[in-house]
Amino acid sequence: MEFFDNHKKLFGATFLLFAALTILVAILPALHNQRNNAPLPNAEPLSDDAVKGKAIFIANGCVACHTQQVRNVDMDKIWGSRPSIASDYAGIHRTDIWRNTATLMGTERTGPDLTNIGSRQPSLDWNLVHLYNPRIVVKESIMPAYPWLFTIKAEPEKDDVVVSVPDEFLKGKAGKVVATPRALQLVAYLQSLKQTPLPDGRPAPEFLYKKAEKKTVAADGTVQGLDGAALYAVNCQSCHQPNGEGLKGAFPSLKGSKIVLDDDPEIMVNIIMNGYNGRAQEGFPPMPAVGTDNKLSAEEIAAIMNHEKTSWGNNAKQVTPEQVQQIVDAVKQKAE
Q1: Domain architecture of the chain: domains with CATH
Q2: What pTM was estimated for this model as a whole?
Q3: Nearest to 208 by CA among 70, 110, 327, 13
Q4: Do residues 93 and 219 touch, judged by C-beta distance below 8 A?
Q5: pLDDT in tens, 89-128
Q6: Are 56 and 108 in contact (CB under 8 A)?
Q7: CA-to-CA distance for 194 and 47, rounded, in angstroms?
């Protein structure tokens, strides 16, 4: 009982026990991880703008709703090409001596995971519109708007980045919406979030618990393909919108599009696989290589194309996965 009656011994022993546990549970494992993990060879450090954008990301609480970790389960496959590994976080250092914001893995997915958002959605225009008011591009979004990252100018200057905001979202404000440096820095950080390919062509770890593909059988006994509407919603809808009409001055319409209605699918497949920048003079931003970035199969591309060719009043000749695969192979041969 003497030990418990002596406050110096009691608190001294408590402190030593706490220190020992801290060393065993936190410090030694951290040192072990530093010795045994390193950034992947092709990993790119953040640019100065991206570093500042990361601080803005933290300051605005984005980490509360967005994770940056692709788990090794099949349901996470849409967020990245492979599950995250320790090396993905090995080269990220503390912000300063007081703040440990080295990794922003997060714990909640109120919004989508951002591990590979720089590849999934690299468009500067889309990201700026989305930050100004997410409801412009995703009607059902519950993400807050960040209008304080923008300013309204009657006459934008030559170097200003003007954001294409529909009139109904300006709420009577006259002028053009211009992105501030803080908005551009935040987007620079988002664009930097890309999974680094594994070296030496090593295969990526497989996703676990894969879902069995469900196929429906029509009345005539034929097996129906993939759900083109669902694939369109995941891969295309954020820009071209659910009604296929896009956004004026930002993203072109697929409704009545000559490329979509063309019976020859070669141009359309090429655009999906390699992206497109042929309408820059009209003010439209470059389209990313959605098919390549999201590793879409020929079956998935065909399902998306057929949805676009038969929706919103479009009535074009549908394509088969075999046609798409032939075009994809031909495009790859030309690139080589």
Answers
A1: 48-143+180-192 (1.10.760.10), 219-335 (1.10.760.10)
A2: 0.79
A3: 70
A4: no
A5: 988 888 888 887 888 999 999 999 999 999 888 889 999 9
A6: no
A7: 13
